[in-house]
Amino acid sequence: MQPTEAPMSTALDTITAKKPRRADALRNYEALLAAAREAFAASGTDASLEDVARRAGVGIGTLYRNFPARDDLIEAVYVSEIEALAAVADEVRNDAAWPALTRWLDRFVDYIGTKRVLIEAMNRDSEVMAACRTAMYEAGGPVLARAQAEGVARDDVDVIDVVRMVAGVAGVQADPDQRRRLVDVAIDGLRAR
Amino acid sequence: MQPTEAPMSTALDTITAKKPRRADALRNYEALLAAAREAFAASGTDASLEDVARRAGVGIGTLYRNFPARDDLIEAVYVSEIEALAAVADEVRNDAAWPALTRWLDRFVDYIGTKRVLIEAMNRDSEVMAACRTAMYEAGGPVLARAQAEGVARDDVDVIDVVRMVAGVAGVQADPDQRRRLVDVAIDGLRAR
DNA sequence: CACGGTAGCGGAGGCACCCTCCGCTTGCAA
DNA sequence: TTGCAAGCGGAGGGTGCCTCCGCTACCGTG
């Protein structure tokens, strides 16, 4: 464990370290990221990379130099959003144990419910995403642990179970009302019996 | 409602009606289906269609004549499996209300858990798949209704909710143990409080 | 059985995308 | 100002998608 004063090391750092150093190159890098975010939002993460390069106004070669694989680009686009997701757990620090748990998960669902790409991105098998997941588990773990310690949440599940289950339910194709209902049912399953 | 003696009309019929009539054409049709099943199992539903045609030993044109869109091929491959899925609900007809519900859903999860493609296929937006879903809801509806009537299942959900939720949880990337645990939690959320 | 019409065949071809490679350009340190 | 390496970008080879249409061979009819 690091002393809390030290700047927290995040998965973002891993990405930032890869940014190019020259001014023109940096401009291109940012343009690519913006174009990719736009394209992924419009057509999912399998949008055409040539199209991304075109939108960004750079050559395809430049895209591939900055992001050798499609996954690298996806990660760069979504890492910051996923980190924000982890931060959601902090918002409920002062709630009572069970409401804290439900509010955390509800916020979580609100956040990812509309963008299925985020769930996919989160499940991606890569170093960076693994770091993201860890961050998320570390943030949510205490919320669950508190509810379990107070006996309001069943204790045969861990935080990974909870996040996976909720993400699974949140990812179903359904209108927002139905999704909310499904998530509520699933969360209800977490109550201590 | 049809009298029960009449042969039940199934989504399969819609597919069967599209089979070619000439002997050589029928052979090709079956070969394509077999090749596609194999290819989809190996590389998912985005396997190369040219490869499917090659494996089947027919020209690419033949594939496209029988299955004008990729989805048509996917449907033809999976419709029968999804119908089997609906039949699972019949197995539990004689169980007590709550065990019937849990057993139905457990069997359901066993069936689709390993093949994510099936879940995807099921959510596909098409006439045939809609018929499949309807069949499934009609099979599972009574199981849920019985549990609700006896007051052991919460009554603010319908069968569509239940199937969607369970399918969502069953689709998460996880080892079988974890998946089983997650599904149990979610199903537990269905208990009347 | 012979034969004609037509259902069905299959692959060439046009298009889009993937990714690599390498000769040219340009930012920046000295 | 200048030299050079970091960076550029697009041509090109490969693969897959899907359409189109001249040819093949099944099968109903006489």
What would you note in describing this structure?
The structure is a homodimer of 193-residue chains. Helix content of chain A is 69%, strand content 0%. Chain A is built from ten helices and no strands. Chain A has helices spanning 11-16, 23-43, 49-56, 60-66, 70-87, 97-113, 116-123, 127-149, 159-170, 176-188. In chain A, helix 2 crosses helix 3 (49-56). The longest helix of chain A has 23 residues, at 127-149. The A-B interface holds A 123, 154, 156-157, 160-161, 164-165, 167-174, 178, 181-182, 184-190, 193 and B 123, 154, 156-157, 160-161, 164-165, 167-174, 178, 181-182, 184-190, 193. The structure holds a DNA duplex (30 and 30 nucleotides).
User: Rough shape of chain A?
Assistant: elongated
DSSP strand content of chain A: under 5%
Q: State the low-pLDDT regions of chain A, or none.
A: 1-7
Oligomer: homodimer
Total strands of chain A? 0
Let me know the largest β-sheet of chain A.
none
Give the ordered list of helices and strands of chain A.
HHHHHHHHHH
Summarize the structure in short.
The first copy, chain A, is mostly helical and 193 residues long. In chain A, 69% of the residues lie in helices and 0% in strands.
